[in-house]
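Customer escalation, tier 2.

The customer says the design service returned an amino acid string that "doesn't look like it belongs to this structure." They asked us to rerun it and document both sides in this ticket. The original C-alpha coordinates are below, unchanged.
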Protein backbone atom coordinates (compact mmCIF):
# COMPACT_ATOMS: atom_id res chain seq x y z
CA UNK A 1 0.00 0.00 0.00
CA UNK A 2 1.33 3.43 -0.93
CA UNK A 3 0.66 5.55 2.12
CA UNK A 4 1.97 8.64 0.37
CA UNK A 5 -0.80 8.66 -2.23
CA UNK A 6 -3.17 11.39 -1.19
CA UNK A 7 -6.23 11.53 -3.48
CA UNK A 8 -7.43 9.90 -6.68
CA UNK A 9 -5.79 11.49 -9.72
CA UNK A 10 -7.28 12.06 -13.16
CA UNK A 11 -3.85 11.45 -14.67
CA UNK A 12 -1.22 8.75 -14.39
CA UNK A 13 2.21 8.94 -12.79
CA UNK A 14 3.66 8.40 -16.25
CA UNK A 15 1.71 11.37 -17.67
CA UNK A 16 2.83 13.83 -14.98
CA UNK A 17 6.44 12.63 -15.29
CA UNK A 18 6.42 13.07 -19.07
CA UNK A 19 4.88 16.54 -18.65
CA UNK A 20 7.77 17.63 -16.40
CA UNK A 21 10.31 16.04 -18.72
CA UNK A 22 8.88 18.19 -21.53
CA UNK A 23 8.73 21.28 -19.32
CA UNK A 24 12.35 20.75 -18.29
CA UNK A 25 13.30 20.42 -21.96
CA UNK A 26 11.26 23.26 -23.49
CA UNK A 27 10.32 25.49 -20.55
CA UNK A 28 12.18 28.74 -21.12
CA UNK A 29 11.89 31.95 -19.13
CA UNK A 30 13.02 31.23 -15.58
CA UNK A 31 10.90 30.78 -12.44
CA UNK A 32 8.20 33.32 -13.25
CA UNK A 33 7.49 31.80 -16.65
CA UNK A 34 7.78 28.19 -15.40
CA UNK A 35 5.34 28.81 -12.56
CA UNK A 36 2.97 30.38 -15.07
CA UNK A 37 3.31 27.43 -17.48
CA UNK A 38 2.43 24.98 -14.69
CA UNK A 39 -0.73 26.90 -13.84
CA UNK A 40 -1.75 27.25 -17.49
CA UNK A 41 -1.09 23.61 -18.36
CA UNK A 42 -2.05 21.71 -15.21
CA UNK A 43 -4.89 23.87 -13.87
CA UNK A 44 -6.40 25.70 -16.85
CA UNK A 45 -5.85 23.35 -19.79
CA UNK A 46 -5.61 19.81 -18.40
CA UNK A 47 -7.54 20.24 -15.15
CA UNK A 48 -5.17 17.85 -13.35
CA UNK A 49 -4.95 20.17 -10.33
CA UNK A 50 -7.46 22.46 -8.70
CA UNK A 51 -6.64 26.13 -8.28
CA UNK A 52 -6.52 25.52 -4.52
CA UNK A 53 -3.95 22.72 -4.84
CA UNK A 54 -1.80 24.90 -7.08
CA UNK A 55 -1.92 27.86 -4.67
CA UNK A 56 -1.05 25.60 -1.73
CA UNK A 57 1.96 24.31 -3.66
CA UNK A 58 3.07 27.81 -4.62
CA UNK A 59 2.84 29.01 -1.02
CA UNK A 60 4.75 25.99 0.31
CA UNK A 61 7.38 26.33 -2.44
CA UNK A 62 7.98 29.96 -1.49
CA UNK A 63 8.20 29.23 2.24
CA UNK A 64 10.72 26.40 1.85
CA UNK A 65 14.30 27.19 0.78
CA UNK A 66 15.60 26.49 -2.70
CA UNK A 67 14.55 27.15 -6.33
CA UNK A 68 10.87 28.07 -6.59
CA UNK A 69 9.92 26.29 -9.84
CA UNK A 70 11.61 23.02 -8.87
CA UNK A 71 9.92 23.03 -5.45
CA UNK A 72 6.51 23.64 -7.01
CA UNK A 73 7.12 20.77 -9.45
CA UNK A 74 8.13 18.46 -6.60
CA UNK A 75 5.02 19.42 -4.62
CA UNK A 76 2.72 18.89 -7.61
CA UNK A 77 4.22 15.44 -8.10
CA UNK A 78 3.54 14.74 -4.42
CA UNK A 79 -0.12 15.89 -4.49
CA UNK A 80 -1.51 12.67 -5.98
CA UNK A 81 1.49 10.30 -6.09
CA UNK A 82 3.36 10.94 -2.87
CA UNK A 83 7.09 10.38 -2.53
CA UNK A 84 7.58 8.55 -5.82
CA UNK A 85 5.67 11.29 -7.68
CA UNK A 86 7.77 14.02 -6.06
CA UNK A 87 10.99 12.16 -6.93
CA UNK A 88 10.09 11.47 -10.56
CA UNK A 89 8.76 14.96 -11.32
CA UNK A 90 11.77 16.56 -9.66
CA UNK A 91 14.24 14.46 -11.65
CA UNK A 92 12.31 14.83 -14.92
CA UNK A 93 12.22 18.61 -14.49
CA UNK A 94 15.90 19.11 -13.65
CA UNK A 95 17.79 16.49 -15.70
CA UNK A 96 17.20 17.88 -19.25
CA UNK A 97 18.64 21.31 -18.44
CA UNK A 98 21.41 19.70 -16.34
CA UNK A 99 22.67 17.71 -19.31
CA UNK A 100 22.40 20.80 -21.52
CA UNK A 101 24.57 22.92 -19.23
CA UNK A 102 27.12 20.10 -18.94
CA UNK A 103 27.38 20.01 -22.75
CA UNK A 104 27.71 23.79 -22.82
CA UNK A 105 30.38 23.52 -20.12
CA UNK A 106 32.32 21.13 -22.35
CA UNK A 107 32.02 23.60 -25.25
CA UNK A 108 33.12 26.43 -22.97
CA UNK A 109 36.24 24.53 -21.95
CA UNK A 110 37.03 23.69 -25.56
CA UNK A 111 36.62 27.15 -27.02
CA UNK A 112 37.67 29.28 -24.06
CA UNK A 113 34.45 31.24 -23.82
CA UNK A 114 31.06 31.74 -25.43
CA UNK A 115 31.13 34.97 -27.45
CA UNK A 116 28.30 33.72 -29.68
CA UNK A 117 26.19 33.16 -26.58
CA UNK A 118 26.23 36.84 -25.75
CA UNK A 119 24.68 37.53 -29.16
CA UNK A 120 22.09 34.81 -28.59
CA UNK A 121 21.29 36.12 -25.12
CA UNK A 122 20.93 39.65 -26.50
CA UNK A 123 17.81 38.51 -28.34
CA UNK A 124 16.67 35.71 -26.04
CA UNK A 125 16.88 37.82 -22.89
CA UNK A 126 14.59 40.43 -24.41
CA UNK A 127 12.06 37.85 -25.62
CA UNK A 128 12.04 36.21 -22.19
CA UNK A 129 10.85 39.51 -20.69
CA UNK A 130 7.79 39.49 -22.93
CA UNK A 131 7.07 35.84 -22.13
CA UNK A 132 7.33 36.16 -18.36
CA UNK A 133 5.44 39.46 -18.32
CA UNK A 134 2.43 37.76 -19.91
CA UNK A 135 2.75 34.81 -17.51
CA UNK A 136 2.96 37.13 -14.51
CA UNK A 137 -0.14 39.03 -15.64
CA UNK A 138 -2.17 35.83 -15.99
CA UNK A 139 -0.96 34.61 -12.61
CA UNK A 140 -1.93 37.92 -11.01
CA UNK A 141 -5.54 37.98 -12.21
CA UNK A 142 -5.93 34.28 -11.43
CA UNK A 143 -4.47 34.35 -7.92
CA UNK A 144 -5.62 37.75 -6.65
CA UNK A 145 -8.38 39.29 -8.81
CA UNK A 146 -9.08 40.91 -12.15
CA UNK A 147 -8.03 44.50 -12.78
CA UNK A 148 -11.53 45.81 -12.12
CA UNK A 149 -12.42 48.49 -9.53
CA UNK A 150 -14.98 46.32 -7.73
CA UNK A 151 -12.66 43.29 -7.59
CA UNK A 152 -9.69 45.39 -6.42
CA UNK A 153 -11.83 47.04 -3.74
CA UNK A 154 -13.01 43.65 -2.51
CA UNK A 155 -9.44 42.29 -2.38
CA UNK A 156 -7.71 45.53 -1.43
CA UNK A 157 -5.55 43.99 1.28
CA UNK A 158 -4.28 41.28 -1.05
CA UNK A 159 -3.49 43.98 -3.62
CA UNK A 160 -1.61 45.89 -0.94
CA UNK A 161 0.48 42.79 -0.21
CA UNK A 162 0.98 42.31 -3.96
CA UNK A 163 2.28 45.86 -4.47
CA UNK A 164 4.46 45.55 -1.38
CA UNK A 165 5.98 42.38 -2.81
CA UNK A 166 6.78 44.17 -6.07
CA UNK A 167 8.37 47.19 -4.40
CA UNK A 168 10.43 45.24 -1.85
CA UNK A 169 11.73 42.83 -4.51
CA UNK A 170 12.71 45.61 -6.93
CA UNK A 171 14.43 47.67 -4.21
CA UNK A 172 16.28 44.82 -2.47
CA UNK A 173 16.69 42.53 -5.53
CA UNK A 174 15.85 39.54 -3.36
CA UNK A 175 12.75 37.90 -1.96
CA UNK A 176 12.16 38.23 1.78
CA UNK A 177 10.65 35.14 3.39
CA UNK A 178 9.85 37.12 6.56
CA UNK A 179 7.73 39.48 4.46
CA UNK A 180 5.81 36.50 3.05
CA UNK A 181 5.22 35.10 6.53
CA UNK A 182 4.15 38.50 7.87
CA UNK A 183 1.58 39.01 5.10
CA UNK A 184 0.23 35.51 5.60
CA UNK A 185 -0.14 36.01 9.36
CA UNK A 186 -1.76 39.46 8.98
CA UNK A 187 -4.32 38.22 6.45
CA UNK A 188 -5.06 35.17 8.60
CA UNK A 189 -5.61 37.27 11.73
CA UNK A 190 -7.94 39.64 9.88
CA UNK A 191 -9.94 37.17 7.76
CA UNK A 192 -10.00 33.97 9.82
CA UNK A 193 -8.34 34.19 13.25
CA UNK A 194 -7.42 30.72 14.55
CA UNK A 195 -8.88 29.39 17.80
CA UNK A 196 -5.75 30.09 19.81
CA UNK A 197 -6.15 33.82 19.02
CA UNK A 198 -9.78 33.81 20.15
CA UNK A 199 -8.82 31.83 23.27
CA UNK A 200 -5.50 33.26 24.48
CA UNK A 201 -5.27 30.68 27.27
CA UNK A 202 -4.45 28.06 24.66
CA UNK A 203 -0.74 28.10 23.81
CA UNK A 204 -0.15 27.93 20.03
CA UNK A 205 2.07 25.20 18.69
CA UNK A 206 3.92 27.79 16.54
CA UNK A 207 4.51 28.24 12.79
CA UNK A 208 7.19 26.30 10.91
CA UNK A 209 9.20 28.29 9.03
CA UNK A 210 36.04 16.40 -24.05
CA UNK A 211 37.96 18.63 -21.74
CA UNK A 212 38.29 18.34 -18.03
CA UNK A 213 35.37 15.89 -17.91
CA UNK A 214 36.84 13.87 -15.04
CA UNK A 215 39.35 16.45 -13.83
CA UNK A 216 38.61 17.16 -10.20
CA UNK A 217 40.10 17.34 -6.73
CA UNK A 218 38.57 15.55 -3.74
CA UNK A 219 38.89 18.57 -1.46
CA UNK A 220 37.33 20.80 -4.10
CA UNK A 221 34.36 18.43 -4.41
CA UNK A 222 33.83 18.66 -0.65
CA UNK A 223 33.93 22.45 -0.84
CA UNK A 224 31.46 22.39 -3.76
CA UNK A 225 29.12 20.07 -1.87
CA UNK A 226 29.10 22.21 1.27
CA UNK A 227 28.81 25.57 -0.49
CA UNK A 228 26.02 24.56 -2.87
CA UNK A 229 24.15 22.76 -0.10
CA UNK A 230 24.11 26.08 1.78
CA UNK A 231 22.91 27.80 -1.39
CA UNK A 232 20.05 25.33 -1.68
CA UNK A 233 19.16 25.35 2.01
CA UNK A 234 19.38 29.01 2.94
CA UNK A 235 18.41 30.98 -0.16
CA UNK A 236 14.68 31.47 -0.61
CA UNK A 237 12.83 32.25 -3.81
CA UNK A 238 13.71 32.14 -7.47
CA UNK A 239 16.93 31.98 -9.45
CA UNK A 240 17.34 35.72 -8.98
CA UNK A 241 17.64 35.21 -5.24
CA UNK A 242 20.38 32.60 -5.52
CA UNK A 243 22.60 34.45 -8.03
CA UNK A 244 24.04 37.01 -5.54
CA UNK A 245 24.76 34.17 -3.07
CA UNK A 246 26.54 32.19 -5.78
CA UNK A 247 28.54 35.24 -6.87
CA UNK A 248 29.82 35.93 -3.37
CA UNK A 249 31.07 32.37 -2.96
CA UNK A 250 32.13 31.31 -6.45
CA UNK A 251 33.91 34.56 -7.37
CA UNK A 252 34.73 36.34 -4.12
CA UNK A 253 35.27 33.61 -1.51
CA UNK A 254 36.70 30.63 -3.42
CA UNK A 255 37.86 32.31 -6.63
CA UNK A 256 36.66 29.36 -8.72
CA UNK A 257 35.51 31.67 -11.55
CA UNK A 258 36.32 35.21 -12.60
CA UNK A 259 33.65 37.86 -13.19
CA UNK A 260 33.41 37.19 -16.92
CA UNK A 261 33.05 33.43 -16.43
CA UNK A 262 30.33 33.96 -13.83
CA UNK A 263 28.34 36.22 -16.18
CA UNK A 264 28.66 33.53 -18.86
CA UNK A 265 27.38 30.95 -16.35
CA UNK A 266 24.27 33.04 -15.67
CA UNK A 267 23.79 33.54 -19.42
CA UNK A 268 23.92 29.77 -19.91
CA UNK A 269 21.17 29.32 -17.32
CA UNK A 270 19.00 31.97 -18.95
CA UNK A 271 19.18 30.58 -22.50
CA UNK A 272 18.58 26.98 -21.43
CA UNK A 273 15.15 25.66 -20.39
CA UNK A 274 14.23 24.53 -16.90
CA UNK A 275 15.13 26.21 -13.59
CA UNK A 276 17.55 29.15 -13.69
CA UNK A 277 19.37 27.62 -10.72
CA UNK A 278 20.68 24.91 -13.06
CA UNK A 279 23.56 27.32 -13.62
CA UNK A 280 25.11 25.49 -10.62
CA UNK A 281 25.70 22.52 -12.94
CA UNK A 282 27.63 24.72 -15.39
CA UNK A 283 29.66 26.28 -12.56
CA UNK A 284 30.36 22.87 -11.04
CA UNK A 285 31.59 21.58 -14.42
CA UNK A 286 33.99 24.49 -14.90
CA UNK A 287 35.40 23.99 -11.40
CA UNK A 288 35.65 20.18 -11.23
CA UNK A 289 34.41 18.57 -14.45
CA UNK A 290 31.42 16.25 -14.60
CA UNK A 291 31.77 15.13 -10.95
CA UNK A 292 31.69 18.78 -9.93
CA UNK A 293 28.56 19.39 -11.99
CA UNK A 294 26.80 16.39 -10.41
CA UNK A 295 27.81 17.33 -6.85
CA UNK A 296 26.82 20.99 -7.31
CA UNK A 297 23.41 20.14 -8.76
CA UNK A 298 22.65 17.43 -6.20
CA UNK A 299 23.75 19.60 -3.27
CA UNK A 300 21.59 22.51 -4.48
CA UNK A 301 18.38 20.61 -5.24
CA UNK A 302 18.45 17.97 -2.48
CA UNK A 303 17.59 20.39 0.38
CA UNK A 304 14.52 21.77 -1.43
CA UNK A 305 13.38 18.22 -2.23
CA UNK A 306 13.70 17.13 1.39
CA UNK A 307 11.97 20.25 2.72
CA UNK A 308 9.09 19.90 0.27
CA UNK A 309 8.35 16.21 0.80
CA UNK A 310 8.72 16.62 4.57
CA UNK A 311 6.29 19.54 4.78
CA UNK A 312 3.84 18.53 2.03
CA UNK A 313 1.80 15.87 3.93
CA UNK A 314 0.97 18.06 6.94
CA UNK A 315 0.61 21.16 4.77
CA UNK A 316 -1.99 19.41 2.63
CA UNK A 317 -3.84 18.11 5.69
CA UNK A 318 -4.21 21.47 7.42
CA UNK A 319 -4.73 23.53 4.24
CA UNK A 320 -8.52 23.09 4.42
CA UNK A 321 -8.62 25.03 7.69
CA UNK A 322 -10.06 28.54 7.13
CA UNK A 323 -7.24 30.18 9.07
CA UNK A 324 -4.64 28.34 7.02
CA UNK A 325 -6.47 29.26 3.80
CA UNK A 326 -6.33 32.93 4.77
CA UNK A 327 -2.63 32.51 5.63
CA UNK A 328 -2.00 30.97 2.18
CA UNK A 329 -3.98 33.73 0.43
CA UNK A 330 -1.93 36.41 2.15
CA UNK A 331 1.35 34.72 1.27
CA UNK A 332 0.25 34.05 -2.31
CA UNK A 333 -0.54 37.73 -2.92
CA UNK A 334 2.88 38.93 -1.80
CA UNK A 335 4.60 36.00 -3.56
CA UNK A 336 3.03 36.92 -6.90
CA UNK A 337 4.06 40.52 -6.27
CA UNK A 338 7.62 39.37 -5.64
CA UNK A 339 7.58 37.41 -8.88
CA UNK A 340 6.43 40.53 -10.76
CA UNK A 341 9.24 42.41 -9.04
CA UNK A 342 11.64 39.81 -10.40
CA UNK A 343 10.28 40.50 -13.88
CA UNK A 344 11.16 44.17 -13.42
CA UNK A 345 14.68 43.32 -12.30
CA UNK A 346 15.26 40.98 -15.24
CA UNK A 347 13.85 43.59 -17.63
CA UNK A 348 16.24 46.25 -16.33
CA UNK A 349 19.14 43.91 -17.12
CA UNK A 350 17.88 42.54 -20.44
CA UNK A 351 16.23 45.52 -22.16
CA UNK A 352 19.32 47.55 -22.94
CA UNK A 353 18.34 49.42 -26.11
CA UNK A 354 15.54 49.98 -28.65
CA UNK A 355 15.98 46.64 -30.52
CA UNK A 356 15.72 44.60 -27.30
CA UNK A 357 12.67 46.61 -26.25
CA UNK A 358 11.02 45.87 -29.59
CA UNK A 359 11.84 42.15 -29.30
CA UNK A 360 10.37 42.01 -25.78
CA UNK A 361 7.16 43.79 -26.78
CA UNK A 362 6.82 41.67 -29.92
CA UNK A 363 7.20 38.46 -27.90
CA UNK A 364 4.43 39.54 -25.51
CA UNK A 365 2.11 40.54 -28.37
CA UNK A 366 2.79 37.25 -30.16
CA UNK A 367 1.79 35.26 -27.07
CA UNK A 368 -1.39 37.31 -26.59
CA UNK A 369 -2.66 37.27 -30.17
CA UNK A 370 -1.23 33.97 -31.43
CA UNK A 371 -2.26 31.56 -28.68
CA UNK A 372 -1.07 28.48 -30.55
CA UNK A 373 2.46 29.87 -30.88
CA UNK A 374 4.71 28.07 -28.38
CA UNK A 375 7.42 29.75 -26.33
CA UNK A 376 10.36 27.73 -27.76
CA UNK A 377 9.59 29.08 -31.25
CA UNK A 378 9.66 32.64 -29.93
CA UNK A 379 12.96 31.91 -28.16
CA UNK A 380 14.43 30.47 -31.38
CA UNK A 381 13.39 33.49 -33.45
CA UNK A 382 14.77 35.85 -30.78
CA UNK A 383 18.11 33.98 -30.76
CA UNK A 384 18.42 34.35 -34.53
CA UNK A 385 17.53 38.05 -34.32
CA UNK A 386 20.16 38.53 -31.60
CA UNK A 387 22.89 36.99 -33.74
CA UNK A 388 21.84 39.03 -36.78
CA UNK A 389 21.67 42.30 -34.87
CA UNK A 390 25.06 41.74 -33.23
CA UNK A 391 26.68 40.82 -36.57
CA UNK A 392 25.54 44.05 -38.23
Amino acid sequence: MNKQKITTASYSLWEITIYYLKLGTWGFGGPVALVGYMHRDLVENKGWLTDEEYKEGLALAQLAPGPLAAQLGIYIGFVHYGLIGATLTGLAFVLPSFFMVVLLGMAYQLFGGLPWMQAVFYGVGAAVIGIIAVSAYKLTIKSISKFEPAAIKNKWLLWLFYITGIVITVVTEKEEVLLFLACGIIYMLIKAPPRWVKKPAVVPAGILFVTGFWKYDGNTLQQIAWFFAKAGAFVFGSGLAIVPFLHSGVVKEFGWLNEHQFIDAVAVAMITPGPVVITVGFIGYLVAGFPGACVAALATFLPCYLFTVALAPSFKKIAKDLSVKAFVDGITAVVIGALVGSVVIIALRSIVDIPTAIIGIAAAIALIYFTKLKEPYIIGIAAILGILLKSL
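Tier 2 assessment: The sequence is consistent with the input. Residues 146 and 152 are 7 Å apart (CA to CA). The chain has 16 helices and two strands. Sent an explanation to the customer and offered a walkthrough call.
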